[in-house]
Amino acid sequence: MKYLHTMIRVFDLEKALAFFTLLGLTETHRKEVPQGRFTLVFLATDSGEPEIEMTYNWDQEEPYSMGRNFGHLAYRVKNIYDHCLKLQNAGITILRPPRDGYMAFVRSPDQISIELLQAGEPLPPEEPWVSMPNNGEW
Fold first, then answer.
1. CA-CA distance, 129 to 81, in Å (whole number)?
2. Is 124 inside a domain boundary?
3. pLDDT tens digits, 4-46
């Protein structure tokens, strides 16, 4: 498993970008998602290092409350189906199953969202994951 990024929500993208740039991070890539009305900006201390994913929701009218501005931790795994099965067998609820063979979400005992991403290309769809419903907000 490899640590990838921590997602935070930002109210003012330019101010947040200026702060993290001053702190010493540089923008590694950016993704505009018009249909979802948000922008993702990834920052890191150096190429290949873990990133901060800043999520800017275009229609956010007020600053986020403490706790709501934190999003999730992300990890890349070798086999998302095997990893989710191991967690499920240990009693962990898979909140967003890996139906697409690529992404899943679970939550820690302290309610911290954890995103799991398949290394490389998505795996072919596989049961029981394909027909499994979401089990909560992720």
1. 8
2. no
3. 999 999 999 999 999 899 878 999 999 999 999 999 999 999 9
* pTM given for the model: 0.75
DSSP letters for the chain: -EEEEEEEEES-HHHHHHHHHHHT-EEEEEEEETTTTEEEEEEESSTTS-EEEEEEETT--SPPPTTTTEEEEEEEES-HHHHHHHHHHTT---SB--TTSSEEEEE-TT--EEEEEESSSPPPP-TTTTTPPP-S--
Based on the residue annotation, tell me whether 49 is a catalytic residue of this protein.
no
Query: Distance between alpha carbon 20 and the CA centroid of its chain, in Å?
Result: 19
Length of the chain counted residue by residue: 138
What integer is the mean pLDDT of 48-74?
89
Angle CA(7)–CA(35)–CA(127) in degrees, nearest 5? 70
53, 61, 115, 121: which is the annotated catalytic residue? 115
89 and 67 housed in the same domain:
no
Provide the residue range defining the domain that includes 30. 2-71
